Each structure stands twice: as C-alpha cells, then as structure tokens.
Amino acid sequence: MPDETMLNAKPRYPRVVVDREKLGENLDYVIEKCGDYGVEVAGVIKGANGIPGIIPLYLSRPCVQIASSRLEQLRRVREMDPGHTKDTLLLRIPMLSEIKEVVELCDVVLVSEEVQLKALDRAAAEQGKTVKVILMADLGDLREGWWDRGEMLKAALLAENGLENIRLEGVGTNLGCYGSIVPTKEKLDELVEVAEMIEAEIGRELRFISGGATSSFMRVLDGDLPLRINHLRIGEVILLARDLELFYGYDLSGMHMDAFTLEAEVIEVKDKPSHPVGELGIDAFGHTQTYVDRGIRKRALIGVGKVDMADPFDLFPRDEGIEVLGASSDHTILDIEGCPDIKVGDILEFDLNYGSLVHLTSAPGVRIVYK
Ligand SMILES: *Cc1c(COP(=O)(O)O)cnc(C)c1O
Fold it and tell me: Quick check: CB of 69 below 6 Å from ligand 1?
C-alpha cells in the first residue's frame, strides 16, 4: 500500500487526505459519550483498511481494544505497539486455516463455533498463551452467531470449564450488517438475557457484554442502552460520522464528517450532450443504463474510477454545483454546469462514505497522505 506520511511538495493524484486531528476528535467524542454510560469502546479500523497513519491515534486513546476483521491490519497494530499496550480484537470469526496467526496476533477473538474454541485452545497451548473469547449470539440479523441458546450455553460451558487456554470474556452480537436489523433497546435486552443465562450457569459475571457496532451507538445517543451493555465495537461513526445522521437523523454536529477527503485531478472539460449519441448497448461493466437528456452541459472528467472507489455515487463533491454522472474503470464523469470555472489540472475534493473509504484506502493506485 502506498503510504506517504506527509503532504508532500509534489503531490500525485488521486489521493486520500487524512485529517488526523479531526479523526482524533471523533475518537474522543465517541469514547467520552460511551464512557458516560459505562461503555468501553473497541476502536474498529477496518473501514479505513487499518492504514498505518491512523493506528497511533487509536493507540493513544483510551479505547479498550483496537479491532479489525483482518489479521493483516492487526499485525500492523502489533508492530506499531511493541510494548503491547493495547489489546487487539478480531471481529471476523476466525478461519480454521488461520488459527495459529490468530493466537499470535489477537488478544480477544469473536467466536461462533465450538470447533473454533477447540482450535484456539490447542494453538494457545502450543504458544503458551491464553486467548480471550467473546461468544456471538445471533439475534436476528442472520450473519454470525449462535441461533440456538442451548448450543451457545454449551459452548460457553466448554470455554469456561473445558479448555485451559481459553478465557470466556463475554458475549456479543452484531446487528444491522446483513439483515438490516436495528439495535433497539428490546434487541439489546435479549443480549443481556443471553449473558445472564450464561452467568447463572458459570457462577460469575462476564467481563464484556458487547452490544454491537456503530448502529448501537444510537442507543448511547438516546440514553436507552440497557445498563449491562458495557462494550461496543465502533468503526464508521468515528471514521466518517455519516450514517447515523444521514439514515437515522441523529445530530452529529459535534463530530467531523470530513476526516477523509478524496482529491482527484480534472483531465478534461468540455460542453457535451447529456444523452449518449448513437445506438445504446451496454456500458463497460456489461450493464444496460438509462441517461437523462438535459441538453448540452458542461462536464469534467477526473482521473479516478471504479477500480479505485467501486461506485462513483459513493463520492460526494464538496463543491455545490458538481454532480456525479457515472464512471468507468479509470474515469469519473461529472456535470459541472454549476461550476463553470473548473479547468483541466484543477483538483476537486470529495467526501467519502463507508463504501468509497474502504475501497479507496485499499486501492494500489490511490496515495494516502496525512495532515
Ligand atoms: C465491522 C464490524 C464492526 C464495526 O462496524 P461499524 O459499523 O463500522 O461500527 C463491529 N463488529 C463487527 C463484528 C464487525 O464486523
């Protein structure tokens, strides 16, 4: 991954500019709000692909773990934290083929299969370690987690009593990822019930009841998070502070939506028809498209494309008067009728959402620079 640490004198485009001060303030905001409710935060870095320049921010703040779904990113965290000051948390339930590395790199692991517990235990024994696990309950979003409570209890008892190198740290759930289920107070009460069922059997309190991701931060903002939920795994609202305002109407004016900026260079400016001229077939990706005829319009091309950001409609021009029309692999087409002064060589700025951030920060052709 190309990774420039400073805004350099001779910039190359496209590039993502990371404002570390704004990102740090977002981290502080979320950690403090959660802290008011006795909730500890796992800082989730996967939305920005765990790019190295953001890791020190997470290391320097009182989040209880740094979390990712990807081992490569947690390896980077470990390398940047030689004193092991911060626990790493693996969000994606582990593949059996990577268990050895999981034990090497992760302090806490989310788990949803007994066979994972046993494999983790064996690898931990070999490495002379203890692995902390959080057992995932599926409350209806239908991604990972035990559906059957009896089976989950059995796994909890195995982790508690049957495996010497495993420590049962808690239970968790994930909502709003596949099944679009909203983490309502009632849903999270169900998680507390699951936790208390397990606690009754093992005769002690669990360290973590992990109530979800950014979408569960809504319960913190509303002040109706069930009391016993004491852990959230938060990515998006720290990185972008976008979805909860856009989709649920929360006031996030205390946060920065512009910690990440895409800068792209204008490579062509011309007046052209808005409707393609000739017989319509398929586009570069084999799709049939429709086009609105708005007559002759001023348009610009920028040097970034679907290879870099996947979907051009996940880019949001900072200049009012610029409209994204579409893209092919390496070009994005903009209507600039509202910004007639744009010329070839200009640099245009865009806000990002989760989709464009996650793609752009992993695209080999996109530079990353830090303010
Ligand atoms: C990605 C992920 C998160 C963080 O999600 P955000 O919506 O970015 O806050 C939390 N938990 C799990 C299991 C995840 O996979």
Answer: yes
- Please tell me if the CB atom of residue 359 comes closer than 6 angstroms to any atom of ligand 1: no
Question: Which residue has a Cα nearest atom 12 of ligand 1?
Answer: 91
Distance from C-alpha of 64 to C-alpha of 232, rounded to nearest angstrom: 10
Q: Which residue has the tokens 């559906």?
A: 147
The alpha carbon of 316 and the centre of ligand 1 are apart by a number of angstroms equal to 23
Alpha-carbon radius of gyration of the chain: 23
Please tell me the distance between residue 147's alpha carbon and the centre of ligand 1 in angstroms: 19
Q: How far is residue 164 from each of residues 27, 200, 257, 371, measured CA to CA in Å?
A: 36, 21, 45, 46
Cα(287)–Cα(329) distance, rounded to whole angstroms? Answer: 13
pLDDT tens digits for range 151-205: 999 999 999 999 999 999 999 999 988 888 899 999 999 999 999 999 999 999 9
> Could you tell me which residues are beta bridge partners of residue 41?
232
Q: Is the pTM value of this prediction over 0.90?
A: yes
